[in-house]
Amino acid sequence: MTTTKIVLRFPPDLTDQPVTYNLIKEYDLMVNILRGHITPKEEGMLVLELTGKKKQLDRGIDYLAKLGIETQKLSKDVRWLKERCTHCTACTSLCPTKALSVERETMLVDFDKTKCIACEMCVAVCPYEAMEVQF
Amino acid sequence: MKTVEEINQKIKKGSAVILTAEEIIDFVKEKGTKRATEEVDVVTTGTFGPMCSSGAYFNVGHSKPRIKIGGGKAYLNDVPVYTGFAAVDILLGATAVPDDDPRNAVHPGRFAYGGGHVIEELVSGKEVRLTATAYGTDCYPRKKIETRIGLADMNEAVLFNPRNCYQNYNVGVNLGDRAIYTYMGVLQPRLGNANYCSAGQLSPLLCDPLYRTIGVGTRLFLGGGVGYVVWQGTQHSPCVPRTDLGVPKVPGGTLAVIGDLKQMEPRWLRGTSFKGYGVTLTVGIGVPIPILDEETLAHTAVRDEDIVAQVVDYSEAYPQRDSGSLAEVSYAQLKSGEISVNGKTVPTASLSSYARAREIAGILKDRIQKGEFLLSECVQRLPSSDSGIVFKGLQEKPIRLKKAV
After folding, report:
1. What is the pTM of this model?
2. pLDDT reading at B349 higher than 80
3. Is the pLDDT of residue A75 over 90?
């Protein structure tokens, strides 16, 4: 089983497609919706966590591409600007998945992209604009 | 007993022994206070946190023809500066924000840019936009100016902070039922998180709790350059409850510091935004403590487990100026990542950077070791625990208007 977090962007004419249903039904993927922004006749955005067999996962993402939906790994959209970070740790107690954590010995902050669900809590509390989420 | 003069002689010869306020802890554990006092000459401290009472004053030079900005209005990158001095002296405060910044219009507001950010940009070598209007006089005829200006163009650029280096601070929590936006960061409802702000065992005034060596005239690391203590800071409150080791259990002493902004570095002066609260400046400060006797040394070896802070509710108690602590916790507990308040485990985070405080103590140690930084003798002690100073609130009095004659 493989898990990946992806950001979907789909053009206005595709917002009526049952994309999530097809990913589950046709490709046997577990779909966890982390975020969504869909309004009729506008570009839509979905952040999904997909879990399934590697082959099925690749086929599922292929299906999205053929439909004309842009996909990108979530980790590319969330950036920790290390040179701006002062390691104050303000973000770490609020990060729900511990993607941002403190190494207690050195008191340095670290960011594990794979754990991030793009909730943007860190963006609101970082005093130094060291976290960037681009959707 | 050693003197500052003797220690400086050893620094010049390259034979001084210098440890950071972290390193001294194990050193004393191993050798004992007496031997450590004989062997160690200087202990370096450090802190890197948001310090709102910070600012800078500038002499921007005289334009041709001249303008009297003094008494007029002036802005640096749209951030208003104080002009109530001579013609071209202006003062920028760290917490100043642009008039009617649309980014702050909708609650809670981002507070993305302000005085602290202007200072960071100037120190980074960037030019900012100076705009000013004046009433015009015979000797200063001009009424308006708009120009780019950088630190190199100015005659003087001086960082002057009326209150830095708070000796200990509160731990902020929220007992209310909605998120609140404070200078202690975003505090989640029902004790969702706890924020603290001190370098603990590395913090300058926690390593010299009774101000035995740090006083007016003390040379220090300020924003990457050299600065001095010029006075006790505002709200200096030395007569607060203290532990057996003399360390305040609540916010106590403070320092007013000054230094040449042109020597400083953006790594150690950072514009800072607290969503829903405002902007400020995060300042890096390191103070060397000369080991004059056993007592000075014992104080520098204070550990996080020996320093306590009070947990304060910022939803109701703080805004209403009600005193009272929900819990007393140590910095060792705070740094572990969780504390217990009212029977609940609360995750903790810091607003000041311990990692950067450690870096500053290390840089200062290095500069002293190389003979680049000598210690200064303090020329006047700061008021201490025997001063009788009472920290006053503002008592409001009715204003009686004089009757027109």
Report:
1. 0.92
2. yes
3. no
Residue B1 forms contact with A (CB below 8 Å): no
* Domain membership of residue B145 as a residue range: 55-159
d(CA B338, CA A102): 12
Same domain as A68, residue A11: yes
ipTM score: 0.94
Task: Residue A48: give the domain boundaries.
Answer: 2-74
Q: Is B139 a catalytic residue?
A: yes
CB contacts of A106 in chain B (<8 Å) are 355
Q: What is the CATH number of the domain that holds A127?
A: 3.30.70.20
Q: How many domains does chain A have?
A: 2
Given A57, A74, A91, which residue is the final one in a domain? A74
Say whether both A15 and A70 belong to one domain.
yes
A67, burial (CB in 10 Å: exposed 0-12, middle 13-18, buried 19+): middle
Q: Provide the H-helix boundaries in B326-381.
A: 331-336, 354-369
Q: Report the alpha-carbon distance of residue B319 to residue B172 in Å, rounded.
A: 12
Pick the residue of A82, A88, A103, A129 with the most B CBs within 10 A to test the interface with B by mutation: A88
What pLDDT does residue A135 have? 65
Task: Give the number of beta-carbon pairs within 8 Å between A and B.
Answer: 70
Q: What is the mean pLDDT of chain B?
A: 97
Q: How many domains does chain B have?
A: 1
Q: How far is A133 from chain B (nearest CA, A)?
A: 15
Residues of B (182-211) whose Cβ lies below 8 Å from A: 185-186, 188, 192-195
